[in-house]
Each structure stands twice: as structure tokens, then as C-alpha cells.
Design goal:
Elements (H helix, E strand, L loop, with lengths): L6 E5 L24 H11 L4 E5 L17 H10 L3 E6 L18 H20 L4 E4 L5 E2 L7 H18 L4 E4 L9 E2 L4 H11 L4 E6 H6 L4 H10 L4 E6 L18 H12 L5 E4 L8 H22 L1 H10 L2 H13 L2
């Protein structure tokens, strides 16, 4: 694998065919679904990523989970070492248990809040043991559906206290909070990058930052370049990225680069300009395409866009920004991308 500017990774389960609420049995032959070690082997032999991201497997049911936990951590680490892969992220499941339906860190039930913190601490402990520097927090069930449903001030304080306790548990492990506008809740608690950064200010711990899922930002009507510049200008708090695409209407988790072009090129300009050096992880649902090739295509788009930025040059692109002339800019990209 040739030397790259950035480190690319993938959520390991992306190599399997997904399911949804319409086709709950999944979009592929169930007999072709592979377990954690088969998927590590597949990723290693494919050779398109340097890192893998996995869910935290808290129990002993290693045969039914595609993740890493106390029961299989040594075997997972050995398998990844065999293929020269790094475990770049572990994420606890904070949305898949009926007891989490009304929130996790922000639940009104103190027992649920305690279970959530303890679960994440266990994930951090495993991360430390397998040389994983980061855990991801996507609180899918935290938010509200109806007005007058939650005490917003209390929820905010519960989150601040809970993440502080988590951050202090092991300051060497980075914690990334992943915003999303909605789904499964009508209003997600962590909904935008600026709101997440405001929460991080109150948490006041250096090892807490943002995981930017660009698909979430797209359908949340955020501008990717802007939120990257804000997060990176906020003491380099962009800790991790999830890479996919959509039409801004919903979180379709499509192949990165399949919809947006100039917007994504602007994003890579700002990644270079702000010195981003963490993992960018493919996060897609290959319902009707080949999963491995969909992952590879997303990585190829990222490499191509970054190469375009490098070849054009930061100075040239910076001068377009300084000009403030949209016609000059659109003319530039038309000629560069499509010819004169």
C-alpha cells in the first residue's frame, strides 16, 4: 500500500450485507454473512484500509457479535496484527436495548445513566488493552419526540457529569461525540457540530472531541468545510470522521463521493489546511451493491479528492476563497474537472 496523507478505516460490519425495517432478514444470503475473524481477514487481504472500527462486545456471546470485548480481545488483536491493521475505534452500543429507548447519558433513570457510564468504561478498558486510542459515542436514543417531554437543563447536566466521569476514567483514551439531527428520536440531543462543541466546552476535558459523520452533517444542512474549520479551530477537537454520502434528505449511508463533489473537495481542502491527522472511517450500508467494492470505491474517491487538492495547491484554492468571487470559483472547477 502506497504512502498516504490520511489514515483510512472502515466499520468492520460494513463488509456484511445490512438489513433494515423493510427487509429485516437482510439484503444478502444469510449463509454468506461472516463473523469477526472472517471480516478481519477480508479487510486485511483487500488492503484498502489501515484501520478497523468495531462495536464493543460486552458479554461472552462472541459467536453472535461482530465486535471486540473481554471474551475475544486477545484473538482480535492477534488477527489484526497478522494483517497489519490497527483497531482505531471501539463504540459501545447505546441505541439497541429497549431499556435505552428514552436515553442513555441523558436518561431520567439514574440506574440507566450508571449502566451507560459503566458500559463505556468497560469499552475504554478494552480499548487500552488492545492499543485502540479512541472510543466513539453515538447516543441514538438520546433526545425527545414531543414537547414538554424532557427537562433540557437536567439532561445537559447529566451529560456533562457522565462524560466527565468517563473522560477521567482514562485520559489517554480519546472520546468522540457524534452528532446527528434526528433518528431514531425526532430531535437528537447532540444534533449539530456547534452544539456538540458547546457541550464539550462545559465538559472541559482535553480527551473529549467530535466524531464528524459527514452524512449526518449533510442532511442536517451543515456545511462540511465550515464545521471542520470550527471544530479544528476549537483546539483540534475533530477526533474522528465517518465517511459516506446522501442527498441531504435522510441518512442513506451511500458510497462516499457518489453524490457530492465540489463540497467534498472543499472539505479536503480544510482538512489539509487545519492539519487533521486522525482516521477517516468508511460508514456505509451496501444494500444493493457489493460491500467490499463499495468500501474500496469510497476510499478511492477520498484519495482522488485529496490528490486533487494537493495537485492544485492550498495557495491556489486559498486565493479563490480570498477573491470571494463565486463565478471565478465555479469557472475554475468547471475547467479543472470537465475541461475548458
Amino acid at each position: 500500500m502506497s504512502e498516504r496523507k490520511y489514515k483510512y478505516s472502515v466499520i468492520l460490519t460494513n463488509y456484511n450485507k445490512p438489513s433494515d425495517r423493510f427487509l429485516t432478514a437482510g439484503y444478502g444470503d444469510p449463509s454468506e454473512q461472516r463473523g469477526v475473524f472472517e471480516l478481519i481477514e477480508l479487510a486485511g487481504k483487500q488492503g484498502v484500509v489501515e484501520g478497523l472500527e468495531m462495536p464493543f462486545q460486552p458479554g461472552e456471546d462472541a459467536g453472535t457479535w461482530i465486535g471486540v470485548g473481554p471474551s475475544n480481545k486477545k484473538e482480535v488483536k492477534a488477527a489484526m496484527d497478522e494483517y497489519g491493521l490497527q483497531l482505531c475505534s471501539i463504540f459501545p452500543i447505546l441505541w439497541g436495548d429497549w431499556r435505552q429507548a428514552k436515553g442513555t447519558f441523558g436518561s431520567a433513570d439514574p440506574a440507566i445513566r450508571r449502566q451507560t457510564i459503566d458500559l463505556c468504561k468497560r469499552a475504554m478498558d478494552v480499548a487500552a488493552e488492545v492499543d485502540c486510542p479512541y472510543i466513539g459515542i453515538w447516543p441514538g436514543q438520546d433526545g425527545f419526540d414531543y414537547y414538554f417531554e424532557v427537562d433540557h437543563r437536567k439532561v445537559w447536566d447529566w451529560w456533562v457529569d457522565g462524560i466527565r466521569e468517563l473522560a477521567d476514567h482514562n485520559p489517554a483514551i480519546r472520546i468522540g461525540l457524534e452528532p446527528k439531527p434526528n433518528e431514531p428520536r425526532a430531535y437528537s440531543f447532540i444534533s449539530t457540530v456547534p452544539k456538540t462543541l458547546l457541550l464539550i466546552d462545559d465538559i472541559d476535558r482535553k480527551n473529549v472531541g467530535v466524531c464528524l459523520d459527514i452524512g449526518h452533517s449533510l442532511y442536517g444542512l451543515e456545511n462540511l468545510a465550515e464545521v471542520i474549520s470550527i471544530a479544528q479551530g476549537h483546539d483540534n477537537r475533530l477526533f474522528h470522521m465517518h465517511m459516506n454520502d446522501n442527498y441531504r434528505a435522510s441518512d442513506l449511508d451511500m458510497v462516499f463521493g457518489s453524490v457530492h463533489t465540489i463540497e467534498h473537495i472543499e472539505m479536503f481542502y480544510w482538512l489539509r489546511r487545519t492539519g487533521f491527522d486522525k482516521f477517516m472511517s468508511i460508514d456505509l450500508f451496501a444494500y444493493r451493491t457489493d460491500p467490499a467494492e463499495s468500501i474500496a470505491e469510497g476510499v478511492r474517491w477520498m484519495e482522488a479528492m485529496d490528490r486533487f487538492v494537493e495537485e492544485v495547491g492550498l495557495d491556489t484554492l486559498g486565493k479563490l476563497i480570498e477573491s470571494g468571487d463565486p463565478l471565478q470559483t465555479t469557472r475554475f472547477f468547471r475547467e479543472k474537472l470537465l475541461g475548458g
